[in-house]
């Protein structure tokens, strides 16, 4: 049995995960338009993963007989300066999601909600990986700066995801 505030927060997280998907879809569309096809591939796949993150919360709410609210979503930013801009924004977004997940764990602990706390541990680990992925790409992009060959090499590597 989850508390009312946990139910509300889990629904808010469903929204946050779908917003993540929208943000990465928007980045994918921009990258495709600018012929960064590797990045576009990376971001379409990232968006798909975010939908899966959202659905894990939906399934968990079903398991605990919680109410599920389907959220409305805001239109994401659609214009970016560069690949570095995209991945820096992605990294900042993932840090924001990490802080949200940690807040959920805090609430579960406060509520004595061991089941939700256990469920959330997957997301705690996932966020370490998510931040690492974006941070590594930001580092590589900073290393090559505005050298076209380097940028294209990184973009091509991202196409292999
Ligand atoms: Fe990118 O981890 Fe979910 O939101």
The CATH architecture: Up-down Bundle
Mean pLDDT over the residues:
97
Strand fraction: under 5%
- Morphology call: elongated
Q: Could you please say which CATH topology applies here?
A: Ferritin
Order of helices and strands: HHHHH
Radius of gyration: 17 Å
Count the E strands. 0
Percent range of helical residues: over 70%
How would you characterize this protein structure?
The protein is built from five helices and no strands. It is an all-alpha fold and 161 residues long. It is elongated, with a radius of gyration of 17 Å. It has a single domain, classed as Ferritin, core subunit, four-helix bundle (Ferritin, Up-down Bundle), CATH 1.20.1260. 30% of the residues are buried. Helix 4 packs antiparallel against helix 5. Bound molecules: hydroxy diiron-OXO moiety. The site of hydroxy diiron-OXO moiety has 7 residues, from helix 1, helix 2 and helix 3.
In short:
The chain contains 5 helices and no strands.
List keywords for this structure.
mainly alpha, 5 helices, binds hydroxy diiron-OXO moiety, elongated, 161 residues, single chain, Ferritin
List the helices and strands and how they pair.
Blueprint: H1 4-33, H2 37-63, H3 83-111, H4 114-144, H5 148-158
The structure holds hydroxy diiron-OXO moiety.
Hydroxy diiron-OXO moiety (OFO) is lined by residues 17, 20, 50, 53, 94, 97, 130.
């Amino acid at each position: 049995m989850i508390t009312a505030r946990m139910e509300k927060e889990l629904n808010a997280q469903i929204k946050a995960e779908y917003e993540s998907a929208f943000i990465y879809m928007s980045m994918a569309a921009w990258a495709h338009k600018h012929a960064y096809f590797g990045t576009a591939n990376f971001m379409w796949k990232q968006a798909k993963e975010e939908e899966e993150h959202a659905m894990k919360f939906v399934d968990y709410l079903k398991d605990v007989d919680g109410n599920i609210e389907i959220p409305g979503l805001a239109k994401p930013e659609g214009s970016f300066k560069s690949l570095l801009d995209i991945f820096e924004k992605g990294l900042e977004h993932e840090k924001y999601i990490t802080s949200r997940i940690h807040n959920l764990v805090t609430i579960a602990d406060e509520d004595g909600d061991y089941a939700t706390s256990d469920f959330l541990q997957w997301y705690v680990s996932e966020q370490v990986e998510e931040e690492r992925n974006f941070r590594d790409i930001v580092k590589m992009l900073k290393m090559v700066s505005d050298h076209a060959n380097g940028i294209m090499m990184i973009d091509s590597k991202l196409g292999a995801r």
